[in-house]
Write a structure and sequence with these properties.
It is a single chain. Strands 1, 2, 3, 4, 5, 6, 7, 8 and 9 form a nine-stranded mixed β-sheet that branches. The protein has helices at residues 16-22, 27-32, 36-50, 67-74, 86-92, 130-143, 159-167, 176-185, 209-215, 237-241, 243-256, and strands at 57-61, 78-83, 98-102, 115-120, 144-156, 187-188, 201-204, 219-225, 268-274. 42% of the residues are buried. Helix content is 37%, strand content 20%. It is of the alpha/beta class and 277 residues long. The protein starts with 15 loop residues before the first helix and ends with a strand. The protein has one domain: Rossmann fold (3-Layer(aba) Sandwich), CATH 3.40.50.150. Residues 58-148 form the Methyltransferase domain. GO terms for molecular function: methyltransferase activity. Keywords: Methyltransferase, Transferase. This is SAM-dependent methyltransferase.
């Protein structure tokens, strides 16, 4: 059922430890340096193939400080960013062509059918309950026009295990329990202090995401592993620093990005769906 244009009241606040994690302001730099650039450039690569021609109206839900909103606006799209962290919104609002405001993915203030595309490139990471994730996806469905596109990012179930083996942190006995627990029920719980790998989060099985889309009234039509196996091949920064090698890496990853047997190898997964026309 469609709702009034006003935002739904009563959305739960962002958990304290999640807010504290993002208020450190490290996410923007993570995606612009080192191996994090692989996630950024692969997200660009996939989205530029999925998005309608500019100027599309894009709602960047949970868009952080605007790492993606920045290039989307530069591509000619009309971008509005919503994020629950005030620091992120303040930074994003300074980007050319981007409007930004504080908001919650589960209760968007945007009117029904008011945008061409809704991106959720972060909110599903921190919604531990399936009901909340479906609610966020249903809100995305509500605000896109009939036939509009919804793309959501999720973290893969064994990403912490793969990453910690790659870096050697798995051999730290104090760090190992939350890593192994996340592989069991999908819930990453921080251990506190400098040894914590991440904040409270939910890690998906790739096959579970389309069902959440469907329950939200969306028709899923594609999944794309972002980093493939490349992020687990040691420090790939040298590859990414070299434009010629970087292009080859991106081309190689396109070949396997939607192979079902390989989706879970990536650290992050994009799932695309649409609202029925």
């Amino acid at each position: 059922m469609e709702r009034d244009h006003a935002a739904e009241a009563g959305a739960p606040a962002l958990a304290e430890e999640i807010a504290e994690y993002y208020e450190r302001d490290g996410e923007d730099g993570r995606l612009r340096s080192g191996v994090g650039r692989l996630e950024l450039w692969r997200t660009q690569d996939v989205l530029r193939r999925l998005l309608p021609p500019a100027p599309a109206r894009i709602l960047d839900v949970g868009g952080g400080s605007g790492v993606h909103a920045e290039w989307l606006a530069a591509d000619g799209h009309a971008v509005e960013l919503v994020d629950p962290v005030s620091l992120h919104v303040e930074r994003a609002a300074r980007l050319p062509g981007v409007t930004a405001r504080v908001g919650d993915a589960r209760a968007l203030a945007a009117p029904d059918a008011s945008v061409d595309v809704a991106l959720l490139l972060g909110p599903l990471y921190h919604l531990l309950d399936r009901e909340d994730r479906v609610r966020a996806l249903a809100e995305a469905r509500r605000v896109v026009r009939p036939g509009g596109l919804v793309v959501a990012a999720t973290i893969n179930r064994y990403s912490a295990l793969h990453d910690s083996l790659n870096t050697g942190r798995y051999f730290d006995a104090e760090r190992r329990p939350p890593i192994e627990a996340a592989g069991g029920d999908g819930r990453m719980r921080p251990i506190g202090g400098s040894k914590s790998l991440f904040t409270t989060a939910y890690f998906h099985e790739p096959a579970d995401v389309p069902a959440e889309f469907s329950d939200a009234g969306l028709t899923p039509h594609g999944q794309y592993g972002l980093e493939g196996a490349a992020w687990l091949m040691g420090d790939v920064s040298d590859w990414l620093d070299d434009p010629a090698r970087r292009d080859l890496v991106l081309r190689a990853l396109r070949q396997t990005e939607s192979q079902p047997s390989l989706l879970g190898i990536s650290g992050h997964l994009l799932t695309a769906g649409s609202r029925a026309a």
